[in-house]
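[job 4417] fold queue: 2 targets
>>> target A
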Amino acid sequence: MKKTLIYIIVAAVLIGLAAYKIADNKKKQETEVKEVAKQVDKINVNIVTVARENIDTDYTANGTFLPKQEMNQSSEIAGRIVNVLVKEGSRVSAGQVLATIKRDAIEVDISQAQNNLQNAVIDNQRYENAYKTGGVTKQQLDNSRLQLKNAQVAVRAQGVRVNDTSIRAGISGTINKKMVEPGTVVSIGTSMFEIVNINSLKLSVLVDESQIGRIQLGQEVPINVSVLPEDSFSGRITFIAPKSDASLNFPVEIEVQNRGNLKAGMYATALFKTNHGAETQNMLTVPAEAFVNGVSSGQLFIVQNGTAKLIKVTIGKVYGDKVQILSGLTGGEQVITSGQINLENGSKINIVK
């Protein structure tokens, strides 16, 4: 009888403990569910604390070197190449003969034109004398004079053709490519030589619209060349495009004197230095990405008691990805930099970082 009673008491205790444990677990689960529910109602955001800083307004832009001058020297007449007087890599001066075209047929034509001119001179002289004595009319004399002029023009035209059989360099530079050999038949406009002048080079870069007002023609610009890290270069701004491209970047050209180690096509970085005046010191700034609907809106979300508060600020100048704040913030505020698209004024937030 006693054993039965003991079993009953033990069973009751075990049942009680089990019931207590179940109730306790249920309470913990309810607490966790409530906490998760709270988090679900919050929107994840990133923040940055507003502070004063000194802005570095130096700006870099990448680009490639282009020859100051380059041209494709082409033929102005048709014919067969007789001589090619240069090779790839040859240095040439403007006006130097690069190749010659066969001129036998042209020399025959010029001999004929000279004979025609001689006859026209004799005929004209006869008409001039006859007109003085009334032997010919004024119209006949005028026709004689016109034939003389035409004969003179024909001789000059043949002289131009003879001159064109010598292909001359249009600029001073280096033969970068030779497209003809002796025996090649060319027509008018056939490209024969590619000439480049790299005594000085142009570094072509694109400058963002926010920086274009900080540079000027004639400004000296330090340049770093990727494949020549030990050498230092500088150039002078010679061109600033009056119009931007579709990406709101402005083409800028910097002329660099070549000391012999620069080549067209090399990749380089230009460093545009600007004056670091008082305006860029101890400045209150926020990231440009923090603004709602772009910097021009002047609207930001700040953190206030676990919620997002939409405020309006007065902006100053834009320095790259930093925007100057003139009023509306004093420093120390937590500004939301991501997640704004999901926020409304008063939205609950969860700060991720």
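>>> target B
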Amino acid sequence: MKILHVVTGFPYDYSGGITNYVRALVDAQIKLGFDVSVLAGIGGNEYDYVYQMKSTKINPFSLKLEVEDTIYEQDVLTLLKKFDLIHFHMVIDFPSNLLLMISKEIKKYVISLHDYFLICPRIFMSDYQNKICHLIDVKKCNNCCGVLDRNDFLRKISNKIGVALPRIINNTPEIRLGKIKKFVENAKLIFPVSNKVCEIYNNIIPSNNYIVNHIGNITSNMPIPSKVKQDGKVIVGLLGTLSYIKGAEVLVNILSLLKKDNINNLEFHFYGRADKKWLDKLVSLGLIYKGTYTQNDLINVVSSIDIGFVSPIWEDNAPQVVMEFLNLGTPVIGSRRGGITDFIEHMVNGYLFEPTDSFEFNEMIAWLKNITLDDVSKLADGIHKLKTPEQHAREIVQYYGTIKD
């Protein structure tokens, strides 16, 4: 079977959640003996099994919807038709017209739903005012992605000064969604990466072909590091990107309350990148910024963290940082958003709270104020390693085998 994985928008070796996952899956499928190729964005290292294509008219992350590039569309379709099975992961370079053509001309394809790009042009289900959407309301989308928002220059200025553009409603998002529905509906199988992703997609595009399938993560093959003790304090660690939708304001509220009550049994450490305005504020409240890190640093970084902290306010699909913490023996404090609840069980391998529920938030603060290393150790005892990329690859191949021509 000749398999093509599609992960456009970025070079194949880009260090990002979806590209990291696809590389691990492809490596595992090659080891299983399959003839595997990849369609990715232009750039990065060259691989003999990777095709690189990029539209000259379509900019990833633009709200300039319904752009057509007929040459690119035909080139992509010609390539897809050379394979027995197409597995789509990320299509941010694909215009909706191309997705509609794929639904009509490609007989055998599956889709992994890692993000919300197909149903939310802004991807994060966070609207033009930074308000979180928990389900898709296409009428709201028509307002959120209005006429002025589709002008890349105006949107860039708007984002820079922090002032939303005036609303001029149009039905372009609704037209786009109509084409994408055909693309999703005609897939042989659809793999949401968490139950919440499945719920959100199924609400707007109902189908019997959804199969929730948690991905594998390479940290499942890594040894659990010994913890570095730091003066008896509990080190709460954050990894990755810190922004408003990633829970920066939640963290500000937590650190403000802990500082007010002079709680000194905790330290919050952050490794990664953050919006400067949030980072400056958080550091002033006691956050210790440890700089950026790479995947090669991960074991050493996590060895200095007693309990992870992952508190997005958006419906984060299935954060791999949660998987990394758990696989490296570290319990996690997490918000009840997106796919986090698929992996964290409250007071078993971590602590769950709803960031907008004042009772749950205050309960979490009270728990934090009294937390000890023994409490963390008990939660660590409840952790079990998650799926490896190899286990996941075998599952995916088994699902491929159920597809009828």
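[job 4417] complete. Note on B: The chain has 14 helices and twelve strands.
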